[in-house]
Queue: 2 jobs
Job 1
Amino acid sequence: MTDHTLFSKEERVLKDIIGKSQGQDIPQKIYHQLSKDYAKLLKQTKLLVKMSDKQQYQLTDLAEKINIKNQDLIHLDQEKNEFLGIVAHDLKNPLNAIQGSAGFIKEALEDLSKQEILELMEMVEQASRQMYYLVSNLLDVNAIEAGKMNLTISNVDLLTILQALIIHYKSHTKAKQISLNLHLSEQKYLILADQNMLYQILDNLVSNAIKYSPINKKIDIYLSKELQMIRCEIKDEGPGLSESDQKKLFGKFTRLAPKPTANEHCNGLGLFIVKKLVEMMQGKVWCESELGSGCKFIVTFPSGS
């Protein structure tokens, strides 16, 4: 749009006013100069208005961002309070168990049999182990969210780790009369992974299957190769999960409807950590379940060489 079109009305008004005030026609040169100056003034005014609109938009945008940040801070504060409440609750019980057992041993040491002392010490050991797992999980969550988890990727045999876990949980499965069965068609299942993190992932999935399995049930673990991935399925015969529970399954501090069948401890962090670690190693993890029909956790990793 040209100046003539944009300021035509203003030019006519200016010409009329100046013409009337002098009682004569305005020389073309003076008129054009006045018109040019007036047009320039209007252009500057328009620019100022535009700048003001831009500043207003920037202020509005800044206010929205501040509001979002403020909501994030409120959410973080609520999460922190929830976090402290859960940690305090989860640490209270094992601390009470340790304190009670130690105090009882101290007061009744001479009257206790060796077997009774061993049983009390077992309670202390179990409570301290529970506290260790909680603190360890909290440190893992903090490291993951801070981006400070360091990976050492190499060829790792997934089968070897599963076999070690089956031996590790032998006494636990025996106590609950659970059979833990491994199904495979290969002698090795090499994947690209961090060995320590892989152990932590599989340990969590296997221990969860045991934890939520009723007495006298079975757990089946299937290993298979598909394309460039290694697939591991861990299927239990527990209570299964509702659709609502499945939606929040991998959340932080998640409390699900199913409860451990032998009063095992659960802090709601394990599967959150599992998902984060699996994704850090370019893998995937998900759950397939129907309420009343058990759970099947599937995890896949890139194949090794």
Job 2
Amino acid sequence: MAITLTEAAAKRAQTYIDKHEHGLGLRLGVRSSGCSGFAYVVKVADAIHADDQVFEDRGLKLVVDRKSLPFIDGTELDFVREGLNEAFRFTNPNVKSQCGCGESFAV
């Protein structure tokens, strides 16, 4: 089981974490949403809970709750800039389909 970061994602995540006073790492997960079923959640981890799995990559802690882990295990997180838009992009080997807008996915 692992979640990994590209160099671009690690740099952006570190900047994001540094802006938060109590940031311990990056929290990744999924929530029910959209036409395909799930959407990704990315936020700063201010605490690590008993049901969290913690990965380390490129010097950063990646925190995933146990319920989300089966949906994103093996995922690589990248950070991309396209014109004026920038976002984290997930390469998730578990995805079976995505909605047309790219906001949600199914496993």
